[in-house]
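Late entry, evening session. Most of the bench is empty. Finally got around to the prediction I had been postponing all week. Sequence below, unchanged from the version circulated by S.P.
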Amino acid sequence: MAKRTKFSKFKSLYSVIDNLLDTYTQEGTVEILAESHDLELSLSTLRSYLYRYKKQLKELSVATDNSSSKVEINHEGTKQRLGDSQSSEPIQEDNTDVSTEPYIPPTREELDAAMRKMIKQQELGENRSLFVRR
């Protein structure tokens, strides 16, 4: 069996990496990938892979947009987002005064639980946000 390249591992974990980058710094993401996903990357390699992968996605998107084949596009999500952005009603009330609450970093157990949940979602092929309650 052929050995997988780091970039192929990176691509398969991209949704997890993208979620990690929403919460952690790039340095923290590199550490979590090494500890939890057996993917050893330097900070510069992570940045390079992010650039390369996003460039490939953009090129694929442009190629798909210019293709002559008929593609059915579901605009339901777009309509919902437009409706929300045009509404004067807030989506969620927030009574938290951020300036008075000190930052409390998550515990190791909380981080591990979040990582297990992300891995499970990736394995199931789910594209839902981690923050959606079920």
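Two things to note before I forget:
The mean pLDDT is 75.
DSSP finds six helices and no strands in the chain.
Will write this up properly tomorrow.
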